[in-house]
Structure formats: C-alpha cells, structure tokens
Amino acid sequence: GCWSSVSEAMAANLQAKEKLQELRIIFDGGSRKDNEMMLQGFQPHANLKKLRIWGYRGERLPSWLNGQGYLPNVKEIRISGTEVHRYLGSLGRLPSLKVLDMETVPEREIIEKTATVGPSNESMKADATADEANPNRGPETNADTPAAPLFPSLERLRLTTSLFDVDGRWRSNSRGECFRLGAHESANAFPRLKQLRFDFLEWEVVPKEFQQVPSLESLLFFGCRQLKEIPDCIDSLKSLQELAIYSSPKLTLLPKQIANLANLKYFAVVGCPNLVE
C-alpha cells in the first residue's frame, strides 16, 4: 500500500497483524521528523521475522526497533537512509537477529540537525544530548551487572555507504560517515558473527570493535578507497577462512600475521596498485 501521513500509517494497524512475517517500508522524501513519526506509526506485530526499510531520513529509530525486547523474533533487517550509520548500537539487543544490512545514503548537502520526536520535550532534549556524546549508544545497563553481549545471534553483517546521495546524484566526496559502537559496548559484541562485509566505507583503519571477532569466517572489503592498513591482530581471527580486499588504492602493506591464519582457504587482493610485495 501507499501511505502519506502518520494517521494513515497508524490506521494500517500493523501491530494487530500477528501473521505478518515480512515488512517492507519505502520512504519517498519528507522531513526527518515526518519520517520518524511515520516509521513509529508502522509498528508491526512482535511476530515479525524480516524488516526492510529504504530511504529513511530520520535521525533515530522508533521505540519498537531500539532493542528493548519488542521484536524478539526478527531475524533479518535491511535498512538504508541518511543517518543509518548512527543506529548500529541501537540494534544490538535484538535477540534473534541473524542478518543485518545497513546502508548510509548521504545527504547532498550537510543540513542542520533537527529535533526528533519523543515522549516529552524534556526527555527529547536529554536524549539528544546523550546522542551527541555517543550517537550509537545502546540500551542503558547497570554498571554492577555484566552486560549481555551485543548482537548475540548475528551471523552476517554488511555495512556500506552509497555511491549516490539521497537525491540519486553521484557523490564526489564523502562526509566520512562511520558505523561505530561505544567503547564500553564493543568489548562484548558479535559472539556468533561469521561474515563481515564493508562496502565503500571511508575508514583508513578498521575500528577496534571489528578487529577481534573469534567466530568470524569471512572478512570482505569492497571499494574502501581510504583504507590504509589491515590490523596486525588479524591473526586473532582463528576461524577466518576467507579474506578479500577489492579496490583499496591507498593500501600499501599487508600484515605478516596473515601467514598465521591456519584456516584461511581464500585470499584475494585486487585493485590495490600501491601494495608493496
């Protein structure tokens, strides 16, 4: 169907459709606030298994998707939008999530952040302040209680930045969007992750939260043109079977620790002209 207002989205009453297994939502323009309110109105039933959201311009996710236990059965999420790189930590508490595909689609111009919807003006201001400090923060945890691992069931993760901006124009430069977890979260994340894929990201180095994932079997880089190095600790990936790096022209050296990957079956480096043998 096609909905053009929050009231229409709520009238769809997806929350009552207990047999709904897959939900696809495509946004076509609209302000950040309108997108956020629309997505809130599309709250599905807790039985949902697959969720796909395209073209989302909201600055944050709705309450039903923030990992607070509402979607205990969702196994696959694919989401694209202008602020997607901010959401990674927010999805870490979904207990059954196995496949996560996130794509940031940059704005044509950097626009000023706008206020987002919330239960009250005061709580909204407080959340905005906290998000400025750590935009990817996950749910609050008690400092005296060991935190449960983030992404406890995740097996496949793909993070990408679109080659086109939100208006469909080829982007000539990057805003440097970065998918990150908070420092206190990254030490206890991805216990079952098998495949990790980075497409067209602007990292010079791989962030620490993705460097030590013992269960990882496949590590792929596609078009990461700013990438300068692969971490020396790559030999900590004892289960790694596949390592591929495509089109990273600034990559000059590969760590000698790659030789210690006893289970490596496939190794490819293509389109890295400055790599020193």
From TrEMBL:
Residues 4-103 form the R13L1/DRL21-like LRR repeat region domain. Pfam families: LRR_R13L1-DRL21. PANTHER family: DISEASE RESISTANCE PROTEIN RGA3, LEUCINE-RICH REPEAT-CONTAINING PROTEIN 57. Residues 116-147 are annotated as: Disordered. InterPro entries: LRR_dom_sf, LRR_R13L1-DRL21. It comes from Opuntia streptacantha. This is R13L1/DRL21-like LRR repeat region domain-containing protein. It comes from the Eukaryota.
